[in-house]
Amino acid sequence: MTRMRYHRCLIAALWALTVACSAGAQVEAPPAPAKPRAANPAMFAPGGAVAVGDRRMTPQQRDEWRFLKEAAAASRFESDAARLALAKSTNPEVRNFAAALIKHNSAAGNELLHMLQMRGMAAPMLADAQRKMLNRMAKLQGTKFDREFVEAVALRHQQQDVSDFERASMATRDPQIKAWIDQTLPQMRYQLVTGEQLAPNRARVYKISAPLRAAGPG
């Protein structure tokens, strides 16, 4: 009897040990570290502009942001073209216009870059057409360069700038953008008038007036 009791106790102890081991194996393992979430493409607007959080912009805001990006690209194009003119042209009038263009874009561009940064937008790259135009002008020399610079930069580009800024001034509801446009427009109109004087045979878009002269050089 004693031996049988011993065997029963041993079997019971082994059974209890087996149950305990099984229960320990069923304890949940610690959760695996969460995988990082992939970046949401909607957080980044086209052209390098970064949207603020997941905020949805209204059509009005999209137009204003597009205007800022296009204005920044236009300013960069004009400055690059003007530097080419200073390096390649010997025409005093062309060189004076180029120097004034660089000065204006440097002053207006600082505020423009600040507005881009406030909205989480990176300075845009040049458009393909702008890069092609710069490459084309870089290959020209002498009077051929002067004619191309006057036609493309002093006339067409200035006319487009004035038109875009006047339209944006009437359309924008952003007081900061509105103030910057209205501060910049007088000098842009003066630059257009000055550019037209480099090509006297072209039809004039603007006539010089007293306010434009006052807003001119400087």
UniProtKB/TrEMBL annotation:
<dbReference type="InterPro" id="IPR012347">
    <property type="entry name" value="Ferritin-like"/>
</dbReference>
<protein>
    <submittedName>
        <fullName>DUF4142 domain-containing protein</fullName>
    </submittedName>
</protein>
<dbReference type="InterPro" id="IPR025419">
    <property type="entry name" value="DUF4142"/>
</dbReference>
<feature type="signal peptide">
    <location>
        <begin position="1"/>
        <end position="25"/>
    </location>
</feature>
<feature type="domain" description="DUF4142">
    <location>
        <begin position="66"/>
        <end position="197"/>
    </location>
</feature>
<dbReference type="Pfam" id="PF13628">
    <property type="entry name" value="DUF4142"/>
</dbReference>
<keyword id="KW-0732">Signal</keyword>
